[in-house]
Amino acid sequence: MPGTQSHSDSPAPQRGCGNIYADIGRTDAGQMLVKAHLAAKIGEILKQRRLTQQQAAEILGMTQPKLSNMLRGQFRGISEARMFDCLNRLGRDVEIVVRKATRARGAISGRTKVVFA
């Protein structure tokens, strides 16, 4: 039919690199992925405790709108250190390990990742 596009005309799907922020061209992709992991863990703990956002905001020492934004992936104005503090206030230990970068695939610089035990 004229004016319609067939499936064969659609661009082929591409495999991402594992970081959606890098896939969309963010220059702070590593930092954003770390924040996303931290926010997801905070959200998971809040859900397990069956806390309302208002109750959680009081525990975390932030406003409910700021907590809501963080849980929806809007991290502007929320540092990783602040997110670590949230985890501490929720009874979690945060351990930071610094080690020499591996030379996988010719990488010169290190990377940051979040691992939950």
Keywords:
117 residues; 434 Repressor (Amino-terminal Domain); mainly alpha; globular
Task: Characterize the structure shown.
The protein is mainly α. It has a domain at about 40-95: lambda repressor-like DNA-binding domains (434 Repressor (Amino-terminal Domain)). The protein has helices at about 20-25, 30-50, 55-60, 65-70, 80-90. Helix 2 packs parallel to helix 5 (about 80-90) and helix 3 (about 55-60) packs across helix 4 (about 65-70). It is globular.
The quaternary structure here is single chain
Total number of beta strands? 0
CATH topology of the domain at 39-95: 434 Repressor (Amino-terminal Domain)
Helix and strand run: HHHHH
User: What is the share of helical residues?
Assistant: 40-55%
What would the average pLDDT be, to the nearest integer? Answer: 83
Report how far apart the termini are.
56 Å
- Residue stretches low in confidence (pLDDT < 50, at least 5 long) are none
Instruction: Describe the main β-sheet briefly.
Output: none
Structural class: mainly alpha
The CATH superfamily of the domain at 39-95 is: lambda repressor-like DNA-binding domains
How large, in whole angstroms, is the Cα Rg?
19 Å
Q: How much β-strand is present in the residues?
A: under 5%
Quickly count the helices.
Answer: 5
General shape: globular
CATH class of the domain at 39-95: Mainly Alpha
CATH architecture of the domain at 39-95: Orthogonal Bundle
What is this structure's SSE topology?
Elements: H1 20-23, H2 29-48, H3 53-60, H4 64-71, H5 80-89
